[in-house]
Every structure is written in C-alpha cells, then in structure tokens.
Design brief:
Length: 366
Amino acid sequence: MEYETPLFFHVMEYADRAETDVIDMVSGNPDWEPPEALRTGLHEFADADPGRFQYPPSDGLVELRAEIADRRGVDIDQVVITNGAGEANYLAMARAMERNRGSEILLTEPVYPYYPGKTTMLGGTQRFVPTDETGQLDPADVRAAASDETAAIVVNSPNNPTGAVYPEETVRELVAIADAYDAILISDEVYDHFDLSGQFSSALGVDSDHRIVTNSFSKSLAITGFRVGYAIFPPELVANARSRHMLVNVAGSRPAQYAVLHALRETDPDYYRRNRELLRERVETFTDALDAAGAAYTTPQGAFYVMARFEGYPGTLANIEQLIDEIGVAGMPGDAFGDSRSDWLRFALVTPRVEEAAERLAQYFD
Ligand SMILES: Cc1ncc(COP(=O)(O)O)c(C=O)c1O
C-alpha cells in the first residue's frame, strides 16, 4: 500500500530548483526572527556538560512540560512533548483509533492534507464535513456526519488554509458532539498566537475527557526546523500515547527543547504581538494588491494564508508550477486541500515581498 504524501515538499523543491528569482509563499515557514532568548538558550546548551547531550526523558524535559502545564492550566502528566504538532496530531489520531469505538475520522473540507494522509496510514476512513466559503464550520453538519463509527473529529483553528477562527460556541459544540458519540475531538491549535480576530477559543476551555489539544512552537517561536510541539491528553488516554511516542522516537531533541524552554521563560508577550501585527499588515498589503488585480480572495481571521482565485486559472499543481516558472511566485494548489478549493491558489504570507508578489500576479492575469 502506498500512502498519499502531501505536496508541500514537492512544491518547495520545485521552487528551489527554479533558475529565476522566486518569491516563496509555499509553506508556513516564518521569515521573521525567533525571540532573542531562543538563540541564547541554544548557545547556552552548546556549552553544557556532555551529560546534557544524552537522552532527555522520553515525554520531554520535565521543566518544559511543567511550563506548558502551568500556562495551559492542566496537569503535567497530561502533557507529552512531541516532534512538532505533526507528531502530536499523529499520536492523538492513533489514540482515538485504538479505542476501537469506530474507525471513521471526521475532517473538514478544505483540509490540511496531513490529516487525511495520517487517517489512511492509521487504517481509518475519512469523512469530510464541508465548511462555508469563509471556512466556518457549522457544528450541525458535524453532528449530522457523526455516528457510532466516529473515532475522532479533527479540527484546526485558526485554520490552514482558510484563515477561519472558530467562535467559542463552535468549539463548545464540537466537544459536546465528541462527548455524545464517545469520540475524540482533536483540536490542532498551532496558529493560536496568530489570531487576528480576537475570537480564538481553545478547546482546553471546555472541560471534557473526549478532547485532545495539539500545538507546537514551530509557528509561535518561528522555528519550524526545531521540531518541538506537544499534545494535551485527558488523563485516561495519555499512557498509550506516551508509549507510542517512545516506541517511535525513543525521545525528542534535548537542545531544541532546552532552547524552547528558555525562550518561553524569557520572552515578553510583545514578541508575539509584533509578529501578529506584521502578519496583519501583510494581509492588508497582499489583499489590497489582489483587489487592484480584480482577483477574488479570502481575508483570514488568523493563521498565515490567503487564498486567491483568478478567472480561468484553477488551483492545480501544473498551474502552480507555471507561475513559478513564468513570474517567480510560488504558492500551493488549492486542490491539495480538497475539491472545494480546486479553483483557488493558497499563498503563505511569510515573505516581506507580498506586495511584489501580488503585483506580479496582477500583471500576469491582466
Ligand atoms: C494546521 C497545521 N498543523 C500542523 C502543522 C505542523 O506543525 P509542526 O511544524 O509543529 O509539526 C502545520 C504546519 O504548517 C499546520 O499548518
């Protein structure tokens, strides 16, 4: 059996190989600085005693787990440090599947493509619940799709790729549906620091033994290459997840966790606010330029992405490659996120050159 692997790395490599100047808006790799304390922590670690270069505890540095537990208002035993939110989502989905309460996983459409990939890899079946044109999810549709076969409902807010931020009522309802069907709500909150709407609501705010929250420092500290994330499990579900994490990874990376801990302790909230404001300005600049080009687009309430649609130019891989070759603008094909967005292209606002990119697009489609 062959697994479906998401297209991100393919498009990034294609853009890298291009001989022309390419504005890279493919993937959610922040182009801004990590906090100063992240670098200091890493420098400090380099000079540590060699004993500190050996295995950390499998489920992560105790001080880091304690820091997260404290910030999130949960018990330290519920926290497992993972290899990014990628592994956190995998552990959560695997944990939901092994409860043997069904093998169907409810996903939204459009979807972050790693979720259907993981579903298939775990032997589950996918069922998609459509979101509206702004990316909002109607809990009534989720309830209608849920059944005794539902093992998990996987949601992501602020959302990649739509930019939707789910209001508190939606999150509350999603947890209630998981409770009612003895399924697990998996809430991927990696963009929680990039809520431009002020509406973000964490699933941790709704008490339940049927929800797992996943997160990471990839985006909030601008370190997608460090691979530090975490999952917060209900107490009864954590043991197996911890074992799976150990069997797959042995442990995570100690230097990366050390630097993250240092950064969490020393970084002022202003760091996060500045990055959010930077993103807000880029959204405005990029969408203003798309407006001028007469393109349709989404205005994100959060996360890093704007979707744009140009008449007669669907969001296929071939079209994305053509834009890289002809105008040096690299995005992602909308159809990578599901059929509902196959007319759209997704652009990650992780470059200072968003205006130039929009101008190149405007000129090309003029
Ligand atoms: C919705 C979502 N979840 C998870 C991830 C992966 O995060 P990490 O780098 O922490 O594995 C991403 C990365 O873009 C994402 O957009």
